[in-house]
Amino acid sequence: MARSRSPDLARPNQLLDAWRLAQTEGVGPVAWRRLLSRYATAAAALDALPRLARAGGRDAPPAIPTMAEAEKELDRLRKLGAKLLVLDDPGYPPLLAMLDDAPPVIAVQGDPAVLSARAVAMVGGRNASANGQRMAESLAADLARSVVVVSGLARGIDAAAHTGALVTGRTVAVVAGGLDLPYPPEHAALQRRIAETGAVVAESPLGTTPQARHFPRRNRIIAGLSLGVVVVEAATRSGSLITARIAQEIGREVFAVPGSPTDPRSRGANDLLRQGAILTETAEDVLDNLPQHPMSTALDDNVTAPPGLAEPRPELADDSPDLPRTRTQVLDLLGPSPTAVDDVVRRCQFSPAAVMVVLLELELAGRLELLPGNRVALLTDEARIAE
């Protein structure tokens, strides 16, 4: 993927502006990266946001956190022993940065360097059996002698994985809410222990109570930090299978511990084995099959994005005479059914850069939904109200 231009964190307020942009209404990870590519600094992107959203059809300007709110966030993080890492900053986890939707800014409590070490994720059901939890704890303890163990701090398998890893090595917990609101609450002490030797990671700002929509976002970070994902006891509709699916999509290895065919808590893991996951009974099964780098790509700054994801050219002015006509044509080409961005670019008479600017405007206006597979769809009024 094309790498965005990192904010110059040596300049005053650049870190705070990067956080403000990431927390702005309507700005997702992909839009954040495109804005930084187009405007070079977060401050310039913040200045352009109201104009872009208005051009996309939004009446009221998007809600942008104030500098005072950003300063308060940073001060509270420091008191928790945490710091912010910005995408493409030298300290940002390199494997996570490879995701198309890598979080622009993450809060890290503990040692940020742990996030760049070789790591394996371990996930599974919250209602895990005693045998499943014992297996996860033992397997994590063995793995942590060689690699960092990543999980999600949830009840069941996650907690067992963290507990086992703490005995012999280091572990990373990725949480769905803010760092100041451990979830579940009874894992507050476990979170503190993890931060002492490893790290706790959050994409959401402080004060965020975890909600259902936060967990898939957390799961992509778990997969993104790791070279492989081990699934222990997952039902067919388990969130752990979302993590495994994401891992497959981003070229990470998938491992599964077999379970009893009569236990519904093992059906998801057993299904993964039928689909080609590596059967896992010991730490050696994982370590012997763990790649040095993700399978689908390499850590190479020269990798370019697919044509449909090409960033807008910085030299294309916001008042370019092409843009009004491009907006009309792009809207004619889009609808509520998913459409490949490549098709929109190919069928539009104007430059790819102009098309991408219009798509960015629509996204910032809350009128466009980004979908997997480099596809987009216009949101209906009903869908926008539901959001």
What does this molecule look like?
By secondary structure, this protein is α/β, with parallel strands linked by helices. The chain has 3 domains: about 15-105, no CATH class; about 115-285, Rossmann fold (3-Layer(aba) Sandwich), CATH 3.40.50; about 315-385, Winged helix-like DNA-binding domain superfamily/Winged helix DNA-binding domain (Arc Repressor Mutant, subunit A), CATH 1.10.10. The protein is built from 16 helices and 12 strands. The protein has helices at about 15-20, 30-40, 40-55, 65-80, 95, 130-145, 155-170, 190-195, 215-225, 240-250, 265-275, 285, 320-335, 340-345, 350-365, 380-385; strands at about 80-85, 105-110, 120-125, 150, 170-175, 200, 230, 255, 280, 340, 370, 375-380. A 9-stranded mixed sheet has the order 1-2-6-5-4-3-7-8-9, with helices on both faces. A 3-stranded antiparallel sheet has the order 10-12-11. Strand 5, helix 8 (about 190-195) and strand 6 form a beta-alpha-beta unit. It starts with 13 loop residues before the first helix and ends with a helix.
